[in-house]
């Protein structure tokens, strides 16, 4: 019982840790001001986009990525050139990179002096569609959120298959596996025919057993009462005849054997 309580405690701590991590990651992501999941496009500008008018295209009023309190709006209202942005202080937009006619990168930065600025965000325009490039913190938060969500789903799935009983302890109960085994088509095993050697050997054994143990009943027709079989026994010879046969070999062995004739002597021939 101690091991089971320790297991419960460890399992509960792991689940609480994953949930706290999931909550902290979710709290770090601000969904209200998050513009990473949206895009913007004005189809009327797409055919005529070039490095000279891409900032005017980005400064459209319907563009949710554009801040209307920036220095670009002040320059536009005063009908000044973009070179005057270096002499101002505040938020501004510049064209960072251009790869005609498909790709344009615009940077939002905080101007502090003519030689010092702090990047705030980057936006890329692909085929006229504007997207916000994610920063490093957002990328790490997104990856951590995906990982924690997968771990949480794995814990929930594992807990649904876990069972416990005081007498048995812990075990896994998978319902899908039982259903798959039930739905599997049962393949009948083909019975292999016996070989000639096997049939011959079985017949020999059956005949041997029948000769040693003859049947005592036989049934003429199915459903009829079995009839006992009369087994004819050979008549045993009387005991006196057996004793006489035993005595005859004894008398024959006690009688003296006839003397054997010696071989003829060899005589010398006379010349």
UniProtKB/TrEMBL annotation:
A Pfam family this protein belongs to?
Med6
Alphabetized InterPro entries for the sequence: Mediator_Med6, Mediator_Med6_met/pln, Mediator_Med6_sf
Q: Which residues form a coiled coil?
A: none
For bias kind Basic and acidic residues, which ranges apply? 230-250
Which keywords annotate this record?
A: Activator, Nucleus, Transcription, Transcription regulation
Task: Answer whether the UniProt record assigns the keyword Transferase to this protein.
Answer: no
Q: Does the keyword Transcription apply?
A: yes
Q: Which stretches does the entry tag as region Disordered? A: 216-271
Location in the cell: Nucleus
Q: Which domain of life is it from?
A: Eukaryota
- Please give an example of a GO cellular component term from this record: mediator complex
Q: Which family does it belong to?
A: Belongs to the Mediator complex subunit 6 family.
Q: What task does this protein carry out? A: Component of the Mediator complex, a coactivator involved in the regulated transcription of nearly all RNA polymerase II-dependent genes. Mediator functions as a bridge to convey information from gene-specific regulatory proteins to the basal RNA polymerase II transcription machinery. Mediator is recruited to promoters by direct interactions with regulatory proteins and serves as a scaffold for the assembly of a functional preinitiation complex with RNA polymerase II and the general transcription factors.
The protein, known as: Mediator of RNA polymerase II transcription subunit 6
